[in-house]
Amino acid sequence: MEKTFYITTPIYYVNDVPHIGHAYTTLACDALARFKRLDGFNVHFLTGTDEHGQKVEKAAADAGISAQDFTDKVSQNFRDLAVAMNFSNDDFIRTTEPRHIVAAQEIWRRLLASGHIYLDKYAGWYSVRDEGFFTESELVDGKAPSGAPVEWVEEASYFFDLSKWQQPLLDFYAAHPDFILPETRRNEVISFVSGGLRDLSVSRTSFNWGIDVPDDADHIMYVWLDALTNYITAAGFPDITSDTYQTRWPADLHMVGKDILRFHAVYWPAFLMAADLPLPKRVFAHGWWTNEGEKISKSLGNVIDPYVLIETYGLDATRYFLLREVPFGNDGDFSSQAMINRINADLANDLGNLAQRVLSFVGKHCGAAVPTPGTLNATDHALLARAESLITRLRYHYDAQAFHRALEETWEVVGAANRYVDEQAPWSLRKTDPERMATVLYTLMEVLRHLALVTQPVMPQAMASLLDQLAVPASARAFTDIGAAGALAAGAALPQPVGIFPRYVAA
Ligand code: MSP
């Protein structure tokens, strides 16, 4: 049977310019999507924009244009970011698209028909920034727990009977211990749900920018019910008998930031159970970045612009840093010093230098062709075996979204290869034992090939360049090429080597 993998990012609010937080969530998904493709999965990687709601309506009004024109314009910023970051998403969904409006209205009909939605009146606090409802007791100093201002709202509203889903949700979490990760976040969700759930207001009447509630023109759908449904829209819902839906849904992974976990791990599964649809397999909540120790905010003016990072440090170095520096799931601090340290130590020094030394020596002294190895000794075999077996460990780490661990283990092999070069000193074998020299260099090139193959998901361009320099054909760069299957052919001509990771020198 074909192996499939459906992975989603949150859909981004279009009122913001894309910043590091948006780039980070999608980057993690991109690395995982690329890993799975190289590992033979049929991957569907979805991202997009969340375009309805009061927040976007206000932003459009402030810009003096219609909400539709506004979203058309700013949604493009997120597509542009995807290109700039080299994201490999297969689809980009906008909640203003007809396919999504059809799906959102259909899930509404299902919830209504099954008796889980009823008409009443809402009176309470609302935070436009979070697009969330709060009770008096949830407020902190008169604000939402996120610090966002709240306003009093009183209006006719449809409600979803969330309170009835407490036990089914707790049962589901218990039966699926990996549904919410990391574990600390899972515990937070369980304790929140254990504390009891209130029915949720799922329609609004006081503004217009949203999807119409079917058969009641006075109401629009609550933006989170609308937005969460994007994940099934892109899987082909409501056509649930289609091949597309059958192969994609349920999703393998919803990647989200910790701030929006509750919507994904409580509301969304409850909506799906009530609509009699299967639940996604996992929701992973990652942490938040601060900037040089400070919370990132527009008002502090310290928002990190991904374009500036790419321009300053290079795309792949930025991708590497974001996934290597912080244990995935934890909060992390961005500092330019930490970035520079990673670039100069891990990339320029450890991997870059290794590749450069080996390739330029082979270029000069082995006729710019893959050397013909003699018999490999135990040391050569041991190093090669480490490089070849990395994939088993990496599968495990990628499946746990532990990107930092995957890179850490990969760099342990980089370290072992550097020690091997020092010990074997191929440069001094040139005159004394050329056959042994060829064997050592061949072993090193094979190790480099494996390092490049498994690091492609994080640094696709740099690793493509390294594989080009090793004369690995484009058709031999999947994980099935690990080991003897894709071994470098002795005698194959090599191109002129070029550095892959320049040292960062402050301007
Ligand atoms: N529109 C909703 C999601 C709907 S999904 C059905 C939304 N959008 S958002 O644009 O505000 O945020 C999107 C993502 O960016 C979230 O996963 C959030 O955690 C992430 N980040 C925003 N700032 C961040 C940091 N400073 N650090 C890391 N990620 C952060 O929420």
Q: What does this 3D model show about the protein?
A:
It is a single chain. This protein is an alpha/beta fold and 507 residues long. It has 18 helices and 15 strands. Strands 3-2-1-11-12-7 form a 6-stranded parallel β-sheet, with helices on both faces. The chain has a 4-stranded antiparallel β-sheet with strand order 5-4-6-8, covered by helices on one side. The structure holds 5'-O-[(L-methionyl)-sulphamoyl]adenosine (MSP). 5'-O-[(L-methionyl)-sulphamoyl]adenosine binds next to strand 1, helix 1, helix 7 and strand 11. The site of 5'-O-[(L-methionyl)-sulphamoyl]adenosine has 20 residues, from strand 1, helix 1, helix 7 and strand 11.
Major beta sheet, specifics?
A: 6 strands, parallel
Strand content: 5-15%
Q: Characterize the overall form.
A: elongated
Distance, first to last CA = 54 Å
Task: Write out the strand line-up for the largest beta sheet, numbering strands in chain order.
Answer: 3-2-1-11-12-7
- Rg over CA atoms, rounded to whole Å, is 26 Å
Structural class: alpha/beta
Identify the bound ligands: 5'-O-[(L-methionyl)-sulphamoyl]adenosine
The residue-averaged pLDDT reads 96
Number of helices: 18
Spans of 5+ residues with little confidence (pLDDT < 50)?
none
Helix content: 40-55%
What is the count of β-strands?
15
